[in-house]
């Protein structure tokens, strides 16, 4: 399938430490490029149960900034056993009142040099593309502020659920660093003029405004955020992974195409879907008036 092929192609390009068999934290780097001691707490945590993997940005003291170490840790958690049949859906959330404040500005000073800066933005871009190309749906669960690359992370996820206290912004222009990479995901999630107002002014929008413009899937009261996100995740986890995976890959593949090409691609995907074991199982179960028994 296209998604799996894209993921395998991506995996061939990533550092070897990402491909290790155990779920190990990546070697985080200090501001001068040196490795952080192993005693340094990992910037993300992850656990998986009943097909649902929960990845948590766990550095609230630094507003869950997407430092290079945070990005590599997130990348590792997303990639871990991505092809396992036991994985059905991923949820990305955060500790503290800030979902993510974006890149760590201390890593973007001139002392770090262009090569280090390039590595940060390349790694960030790889994480965002990995979310798009991953074989299972990825949900952002947002409770608080998401700015710059943090807003980019939300926009890159397949589904985004937020509390009504959340806000979203791309404020880089206010400090002289235009949010060009966040604009890639933002501009593909909201209307152009909405994206450009956010990018040109840096002013935040509320969760309700973000929902209205298409950045979010749903807004709920804070006390219902986890419940609603888990409801969506459990529903996805109850379905056929091969069918959902094919559907996700096809959806993104057809989006940039002209109408005729889009219908050609999706018609072929429907044929491929019918050739899947679960495609036939679902139809038989419907005809026989029983619940389907999925292959995974």
UniProtKB/TrEMBL annotation:
Transmembrane segments: none annotated. The keyword Mitochondrion applies. The keyword Iron does not apply. Keywords: Fatty acid metabolism, Lipid metabolism, Mitochondrion, Transit peptide. It is found in: Mitochondrion. Its main location: mitochondrion. Residues 30-50 are annotated as: Disordered. Pfam families: ECH_1. GO terms for molecular function: hydro-lyase activity. CDD domains: crotonase-like. GO terms for biological process: fatty acid metabolic process. InterPro entries: ClpP/crotonase-like_dom_sf, Enoyl-CoA_hydra/iso, Enoyl-CoA_hydra_C, Mitochondrial_ECH-domain. Coiled coil: none annotated. GO terms for cellular component: mitochondrion. May play a role in fatty acid biosynthesis and insulin sensitivity. NCBIfam families: PRK08139.1. Belongs to the enoyl-CoA hydratase/isomerase family. This is Enoyl-CoA hydratase domain-containing protein 3, mitochondrial. The gene is ECHDC3.
């Amino acid at each position: 399938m296209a998604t799996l092929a894209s993921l395998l192609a991506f995996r061939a390009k990533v550092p070897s430490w990402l491909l290790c068999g155990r779920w190990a934290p990546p070697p985080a780097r200090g501001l001068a490029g040196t490795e952080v001691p192993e005693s340094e707490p990992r910037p993300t945590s992850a656990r998986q149960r009943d097909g649902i993997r929960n990845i948590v940005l766990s550095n609230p003291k630094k507003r869950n900034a997407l430092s290079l170490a945070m990005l590599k840790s997130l990348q590792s958690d997303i990639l871990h056993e991505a092809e396992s049949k036991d994985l059905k859906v991923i949820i990305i959330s955060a500790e503290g009142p800030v979902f993510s404040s974006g890149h760590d500005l201390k890593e973007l000073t001139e002392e770090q040099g262009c090569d280090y800066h390039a590595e940060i933005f390349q790694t960030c871009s790889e994480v965002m593309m990995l979310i798009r190309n991953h074989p299972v749906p990825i949900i952002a669960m947002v409770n608080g502020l998401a700015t710059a690359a943090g807003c980019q992370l939300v926009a890159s996820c397949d589904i985004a659920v937020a509390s009504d206290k959340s806000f979203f912004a791309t404020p880089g222009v206010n400090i002289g660093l235009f949010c060009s990479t966040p604009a890639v995901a933002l501009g593909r999630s909201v209307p152009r003029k909405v994206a450009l107002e956010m990018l040109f002014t840096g002013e935040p929008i509320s969760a309700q405004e973000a929902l209205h413009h298409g950045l979010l899937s749903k807004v709920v009261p804070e006390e219902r955020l986890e419940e609603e996100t888990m409801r969506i995740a459990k529903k996805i986890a109850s379905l056929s992974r091969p069918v959902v995976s094919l559907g996700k890959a096809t959806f993104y593949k057809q989006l940039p195409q002209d109408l005729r090409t889009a219908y050609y691609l999706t018609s072929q995907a429907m044929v491929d879907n019918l050739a899947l074991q679960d495609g036939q199982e679902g139809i038989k179960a419907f005809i026989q008036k029983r619940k389907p028994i999925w292959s995974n």
